[in-house]
């Protein structure tokens, strides 16, 4: 149960009430059946609830969510890796409320202390001359701007991303995203974009044969502990072929990669691949973009940013989701030299730098630091990985447990030897059952057979025990 003394605000002079003492707000509104009808008639049909029997969520408190009936759920997905410090965290609530009473919105055409102070605080989290901040509203928008920066600053056009990646669904980023699950039959989206083979240690065409994967990957990207990874060498040669055959010599605009693939199923990469790839891109005129939308802000435990685990310093970094704990906020960080290219014409974002968003972002950074949430991600995340690995040792259907910190994936397979993805209906049976036991997991991966575990970073080891027990029971209930 969550109980912690917080010291950095008057809100934190008392202990948080335990979850048993917390009562969700009484729900006042249409019942679930009425909401289903309203959604069917008035909400875009692509927005579908994920469970067989949808949840009607009413309120949240730290790592817990409550439905309209008052039932409590442990949130192990964090609003799709977005709620970083906890639902309705008191310090963030207070910061936004204080700003709300002063000023909701101007734009960047006026000087705003919230924008300046937050940009300074955020930029201090980066090495070298990554110190220019451009605030936007979503991860898709951030990656769209990064694509523009890469092409403008280099004067080149050709871009590279990895197969199985997800970088957004705006018209520009749709081309970077490489999965048929997210593709629409429209022209020009892929113009000048190449998708390199994904250096996946578990499912990649070379990883299974050459990469000695580790069941628990807490601080590295594959199990090759010493020396070079043979799979990396092969994937890197395939990347070089793109430069050799598909891109004008020396005319690459850039490459973008998630530090760990999120939507693709918590996919880590073979050892050393990202570092080699970034050097190759720069040697061919391009910049390297690190997509930290899901991996940033201490979630990985060992490092504040995912790119640090790859031992690189990118030219451009994008971030969203956990940056605002659910508030619509995102950012692009780059160097003064690259940022200068946007002065070639007018460039503007109406809501980027909104005072409310900046207040939320600043409060999130302060909570992460003062409550030690990066360290908690490391300690509780490692405990989570080891606990899940016990399930892997028992069940043939649990093919892989992987991740870092509190970004974890559990891949379900027909058998460990074949690594064939578990049939969708079998996986859904397990996944839906965990909800009945009061735990909310995400799902992802190309075949939809990976549990995505990305909870608020305030969860405890007791929460982990509850989650693993619920998963254990759900696997048994499904007949495995």
Written description of the protein model:
With 480 residues, this protein is α/β, with parallel strands linked by helices. The protein folds into 2 domains: 1-74, no CATH class; 94-370, Type I PLP-dependent aspartate aminotransferase-like (Major domain) (Aspartate Aminotransferase, domain 2, 3-Layer(aba) Sandwich). It is 34% helix and 15% strand. It is built from 14 helices and 15 strands. It has helices at 32-42, 78-81, 90-102, 113-123, 139-154, 173-176, 207-210, 230-245, 273-283, 336-339, 355-370, 373-394, 424-436, 461-477; strands at 57-61, 64-67, 72-75, 132-136, 158-162, 193-196, 252-258, 287-291, 316-319, 330-334, 398-404, 407-412, 439-440, 442-444, 450-453. The longest helix has 22 residues, at 373-394. The protein is globular, with a radius of gyration of 22 Å.
How many domains, as an integer?
2
Q: Extract low-pLDDT stretches.
A: 1-21
The CATH architecture of the largest domain would be: 3-Layer(aba) Sandwich
Sheet with most strands: strand arrangement: 4-10-9-8-7-5-6
Number of E-type strands: 15
CATH fold naming of the largest domain:
Aspartate Aminotransferase, domain 2
User: How many whole angstroms does the radius of gyration measure?
Assistant: 22 Å
CATH superfamily of the largest domain: Type I PLP-dependent aspartate aminotransferase-like (Major domain)
